[in-house]
Amino acid sequence: MADTKTLNAGTTTDRGSEGSRDRGRTTISDNVVAAIAGIAIRETEGVHSTGRAASKALGAVTGRMPGSASSSAAGRAVKVEVGEKQAAIDVDVKVEYGTPIHELADRIRANVTDAVEAMTGLEVVEINIVVFDVHIPGDDDDDDDSDDQGGSPRVR
């Protein structure tokens, strides 16, 4: 979790500024940083989805539990480490077919860095991206129906 102090001058910082009087502390939860990053990732053109099937299923279950915030759903597929001044982010993404992955990774890093730094004041020091799949338009994720298409099997 990141802690920042609100100083007399009205700035929210913990980066060496000295104020004459401490007005309190602001704590930024890891879940908040993960949600911000998750939204920024999904807003990046070329990203089909974030998180693998297991993390999505877990997110769907925990999202239905009493007391769970729906706003945290955006960050479930994103793992973060938040220190006092810095954050590191790990994410698994499924990309749209035809998207140059190296360019997409650069856009994801730029979007996430801009969003997290602007909203939290934390320095984003690392964003690790795992591309685990490619989405092909027109492909259904429902593999169980593929046997019912009536064609002859390719192998016996």
One letter per element, helices H and strands E, the order comes to EEEHEHEEHE
Roughly how many Å is the radius of gyration? 20 Å
Mean of the pLDDT scores? 76
Work out the strand percent.
Answer: 25-35%
Distance between the termini: 56 Å
Describe this structure in words.
- Helix 1 packs across helix 3.
- 28% of the residues lie in helices and 31% in strands.
- The radius of gyration is 20 Å and the shape is elongated.
- The chain starts with a strand and ends in a 21-residue tail after the last strand.
- It is an alpha+beta fold.
- The strands form two sheets. Strands 4, 5, 6 and 7 form a four-stranded mixed sheet that branches. Strands 2-1-3 form a three-stranded antiparallel sheet.
Which descriptors apply to this entry?
alpha+beta; 156 residues; 3 helices; single chain
Please outline the helices and strands.
Elements: E1 2-7, E2 12-13, E3 22-28, H1 30-42, E4 47-50, H2 53-63, E5 78-82, E6 86-96, H3 101-120, E7 123-135
Parallel strand pairs: 6-7
Antiparallel strand pairs: 1-2, 1-3, 4-6, 5-6
Helix pairs in contact: 1-3
Task: Summarize, please.
Helices cover 28% and strands 31% of the residues. It has helices at residues 30-42, 53-63, 101-120; strands spanning 2-7, 12-13, 22-28, 47-50, 78-82, 86-96, 123-135.
